[in-house]
Amino acid sequence: MKKILKNQAVQSLLSSLLCILLGLLLGYIVLLFINPAGAGEAIITVIKNFFYYPSKAAVIKYFGNTLVKTAPLLMCGLSVLFAYKVGLFNIGAAGQYVVGVGASLYLALALHMPWYVCLIAAMIAGALLGAISGLLKSYCNVNEVISCIMLNWISLYGVNMLLSLVKETTSPYTFTLSSTNPDAILPDLGMGKLFSNNPYVSIALPLAVVVTIIIWVILEKTKFGYELRATGNNKNAAKYCGMNEKRNIILTMMISGALAGLGAALLYLTGFEQWQCSQSSVPGMGFNGIAAAFLGGLNPIGTIFSSYFIQHITNGGAYVDKSMYCAQISDLISSIIIYLCGFVAFFKYFMNSAIDRREAKKAEKLARAETEEGGQK
After folding, report:
1. pLDDT at site 355
2. Which of 16, 76, 103, 118 is deepest in the core (most CB within 10 A)?
């Protein structure tokens, strides 16, 4: 049992589950303060999400909608995770996500490019934005958090101006892909039929899972991944061993940015959403990626499940009784869980400390028994 509890994967899983349970409990307490009459039903509704519908066809269809939004969140989670493994905090995933939206939609709507070109363009745009932070960090020692935050806002307003060229005349939203360039919509390969003919289900989620596995292989099974992790642990030691720490930092931020940009394309090239050119806040998808990464125990495979869970409860909030609670109640609950994600490392430390104390007591008892036995002889 001790060996199982000392396993890093088991500790990450238990810590994440504890965060989820505490988050739901605190969310329920908040609901009790707002309106105790419907608190129990509201928290159950958030957890149920698409199971709210009595029709099986509707359940399957809206399950597909949750999966559609899980794919970009997974990519943003991987973006944060990849940078964190190298000792960088990529809070700029939100901005990299935004430029991914701008590049993919502009090429799709203005230049009528096919989906795969738009997908690649989104990755390149995110990588270039990430490279700016990487270069500033490597050669000017500018903290990546500062540069990323500034670039988030520059990206937002830059993309707003760019996509204003391809927006509807009577609304602030961009043209729909279905009416402007159907070739830019991600193919579904028949997957939509599995989800009650949901038109938005595409290859996005399978592609995101494949990318996740590739990232895991790079980090854990390659020399390049080892060098990146070594640079993150101690860049001076990595430099002493002959590793190019500046190159590693720049490449890390580029790959991290490319992942966030890919996430944007995996959502907007489904036609599920249109970009609002008048929005004044950076989309939360990039910031939620931080929660997905930490709730997943900073493990690429764990991030798949944590991304789905966060998106599940976020979508579930849409079904809460609006006469009792506001529509943002699910955001409140998810934000509590996100806040608790910061304590995952603490929970793991607490578990390790408890196991070590128990082992120390047993060792002390054993030593005492041996001493007493030796004295008797």
Report:
1. 74
2. 76
